[in-house]
């Protein structure tokens, strides 16, 4: 019986192989930026209504959900999430399914995520009698830096139907196609950023004593920032402080009035995260003052860390093993990239996992957010199967 059930799930996902590729390529040709996913949301809504699901739209602007309710169930629902937004990147030319919109591209796989969740919705509708709890198919806008996940949570997406567990699946081009990565605990980093303006007093390069050189102060600031992780953070706690921009000056013999810098902060622990924010501000202000300048510092709060619950990660690993086999499931080290699925995980137990979508033989090796990014579309049925299994096989973790 179990084997027959297992075969049916896989067969239903495989039956949608051509549709999954078609959906993904259509979305890929028509990328939409965060909170602008009107065409994408309309396509998703139409499909959910064709499946006779309960549909709620306008959540966080362009976000929406479809609800599948099994008869007689009063169990808390499982929420399966896909993000829909693209990036402001110009795609490489020459692809017959390439972006038709100048300067916009699905460079992170969200087109595939949307397609896979639509496929899972079809599979689960055909297996409605096997469900013990409702399923919420959540299509989220604006993951790429705009916090669409946060808005969806704030606008009550977890309470429209009481949700007991949340799961997200992300395609990952840096892992071979068909492998699934899942780990309990900290999986992806919290991200914050900072901006600083080092204000000095400009003058002639031949008369530095009459100026307060912001470039020298900025250089000292960059060096000082490197001591935060090495001398403030517990050595067993991962953390990153990176200065990504430093701009100052217009000529070889002019000391400018100011210098500007920006940087990123990455962490996995809330206390470490707060320490990074505090020490960045303290060091920039004190170091600039020591050079006779002044630092104007702004800290921008980004996404929290992605923390998978132990029980949900176990459930996800079991579903992954059913989907791709034990040898193709692994537990990776934490990854310093960030994801706003973290807002869902802060409210409910759940897990976020990666599905490998790279393929060296096909030349699919470019990293995410690259103009050359692509996915091996053969993994799309496995993604739909994996999402369906999470709903079919998993009890809500407590």
Summarize the structure.
This protein is α/β, with parallel strands linked by helices. It has helices at residues 2-14, 17-29, 38-50, 110-126, 148-154, 214-231, 270-290, 310-324, 342-347, 380-393, and strands at 54-59, 63-68, 77-83, 135-140, 163-176, 180-181, 185-188, 190-199, 203-204, 239-248, 254-255, 258-267, 294-301, 306-308, 329-330, 350-358.
Explain what this protein looks like in three dimensions.
The structure is a single chain. By secondary structure, the chain is α/β, with parallel strands linked by helices. The strands form 4 sheets. Strands 1-2-4-3-5-16-6-15 form an 8-stranded mixed β-sheet, sandwiched between helices. Strands 10-12-8-13 form a 4-stranded antiparallel β-sheet, with helices on one face. A hairpin with a 3-residue loop joins strand 1 and strand 2 (63-68). The protein contains 10 helices and 16 strands. The mean pLDDT is 96.
Portion of residues in helices? 25-40%
Q: For this structure, what is the CATH class of the largest domain?
A: Alpha Beta
By CATH, the superfamily of the largest domain comes out as Zn peptidases
Architecture of the largest domain, CATH level 2?
A: 3-Layer(aba) Sandwich
Q: Can you tell me the residue ranges where pLDDT is under 50 for at least 5 consecutive residues?
A: none
Mean pLDDT: 96
Beta-strand percent range: 25-35%
The first-to-last residue Cα distance is 28 Å
Instruction: Report the principal-axis shape.
Output: elongated
Radius of gyration computed on alpha carbons: 24 Å
SS-based class: alpha/beta
Secondary structure: number of strands: 16
Order of helices and strands: HHHEEEHEHEEEEEHEEEHEEHEHEH
Task: Quickly count the domains.
Answer: 2
- Give the number of helices: 10
CATH topology of the largest domain: Aminopeptidase
